[in-house]
Design brief:
Length: about 270
């Protein structure tokens, strides 16, 4: 039995983990928007010790370490299923334990501490001799050079600051950058346009999913790079196609706050 939820348009099918199931295959089938239920990813809940553990598969069947919008939807799922109670609880993931604070019940909102950013090229699995990959130039097939910054924010991200978001989306640069051989395990490409010191708009071409309506860890990555450059205030709004996320920091720990909405419940997928 599954539920479907979305976080500012980033949608997920969520259910309980069952041993012996080929989830790489199932995620591709169930996330297909024509022959399946349709989603950006499949989230599965199992217990690890006394904590709920989130397993995340992209729609292409690949396993990913974490998902920002996904963990908010997963947190709401835990409440709906009666797995957790109260306003504060922890969720374990491949990227470590994330603390969740429910900030509103109806509509559901929560704030997640994603921890500190990591800029290490080794952590990012980059094919480079550089210790970090910040403010680096990547040459496109057109000959144009694009400045990029790589950051591990619970998963692999690349931040590209652009002057015109729509123009950048339509240019095909995100797809081309993602295929660059320096990113040995692929990377999420975040195109970011600064509106003012409190507002940013962005679009993410996700590893394993393609263009998505939102990316929580991508929004958090954009925040870190923009703040590092002195372009934004300590708390900002990330404006996305289907909603907004609030990103802030305390002592370099990054906090992401946003909604999760249930779309459907008691779903049985006939494979």
């Amino acid at each position: 039995m599954f539920r479907k939820l979305h976080g500012v348009g980033n949608d997920f099918i969520i259910g309980r983990y069952v041993e012996g199931v080929n989830y790489e295959d199932l995620s591709k089938k169930i996330c297909d928007r024509h022959t399946g239920i349709g989603a950006d990813g499949l989230l599965l809940m199992k217990m690890k010790g006394n904590l709920p553990y989130m397993v995340f598969y992209n729609s292409d069947g690949s396993l990913a370490p974490m998902c920002g919008n996904g963990i908010r939807c997963f947190s709401y799922y835990l409440i709906l299923e009666g797995v957790v109670s109260g306003k504060n609880f922890d969720v374990d993931t491949l990227s470590g334990i994330m603390h969740v604070e429910v900030t509103n019940d109806n509509p559901f909102m929560c704030k997640v501490c994603l921890g500190k950013a990591d800029f290490s090229s080794k952590k990012l699995d980059l094919d480079t001799k550089l210790d970090t990959f910040l403010d680096q130039k990547i040459k496109l097939s057109s000959g144009k050079e694009i400045e990029v910054s790589a950051i591990y924010m619970t998963t692999h991200h690349l931040v590209v600051i652009v002057d015109d978001l729509e123009e950048a989306i339509n240019s095909g640069m995100a797809q081309e950058i993602q295929k660059n051989k320096v990113f040995t395990k692929g990377i999420n490409v975040n195109l970011v346009q600064v509106i003012d010191r409190d507002n940013v708009t962005m679009k993410t071409y996700e590893r394993g999913a393609g263009w998505t309506l939102a990316c929580g860890t991508g929004a958090s990555s954009a925040y870190v790079i923009l703040k590092k450059k002195g372009l934004i205030n300590n708390e900002i709004t990330i404006n996305l196609e289907k909603g907004k996320l609030k990103i802030s920091s305390i002592d370099d720990d990054i906090y992401m706050e946003g909604p999760a909405v249930e779309v459907a419940s008691e779903i049985v997928f006939n494979d």
